[in-house]
Specification:
Layout lengths: L3 H19 L22 E7 L3 E8 L4 H13 L1 H8 L4 E7 L5 E10 L9 H22 L8
Antiparallel strand pairs: 1-2, 2-4, 3-4
């Protein structure tokens, strides 16, 4: 078992390695991008990647404090579902009004990879292979779809 400090350092090492690995990859718009902390430009709308000791996930997360506005954002993604699924080339799980690790109400479109640990460096290639194509696909989707969310800016 790792101390809190060691666990934090291992997670930081993974995300640093992932960021370095993707650094040469330009966005769909041809720009340099911070892939680990991807900015959508819309408040309360995030592309989130997480990895812990049991699994990893990548998600589009809507965290607006107003549940009705959160639902409007979610509905806008439903309108774009065929485009999103085409870009991702797979189905993700759609969760309206679920709770996050802080017990806050969020809505997510999420893909999970079970059975991996960020604390096991032997799993890092699997984690990178999971995250990389999906964050790039989300960026390509967002390059086209972001204008549909201008009313939330």
């Amino acid at each position: 078992m790792y101390s809190k400090e060691q666990a934090s350092q291992l997670k930081q090492a993974f995300w640093t390695a992932f960021g370095q690995y993707l650094k040469p990859q330009l966005s769909a718009d041809g720009l340099r991008t911070n892939w680990v902390n991807y900015k959508t430009g819309v408040k309360h709308l995030y592309f989130k990647m997480e990895a812990d000791k049991r699994s990893a996930f990548i998600a589009i997360e809507m965290s607006h404090p107003d549940a009705d506005i959160q639902q409007l954002m979610f509905d806008q993604f439903i309108e774009l579902k065929n485009i999103l699924n085409g870009q991702l080339d797979e189905e993700w799980e759609w969760q309206l009004h679920t709770t996050d690790e802080y017990n806050k109400t969020v809505s997510r479109i999420i893909k999970t990879l079970p059975g991996v640990s960020v604390f096991n460096q032997a799993d890092w290639p699997a984690l990178i292979s999971f995250f990389k194509p999906r964050i790039i696909a989300l960026d390509e989707f967002w390059s086209m779809a972001q204008y549909s969310f201008d009313l939330f800016r």
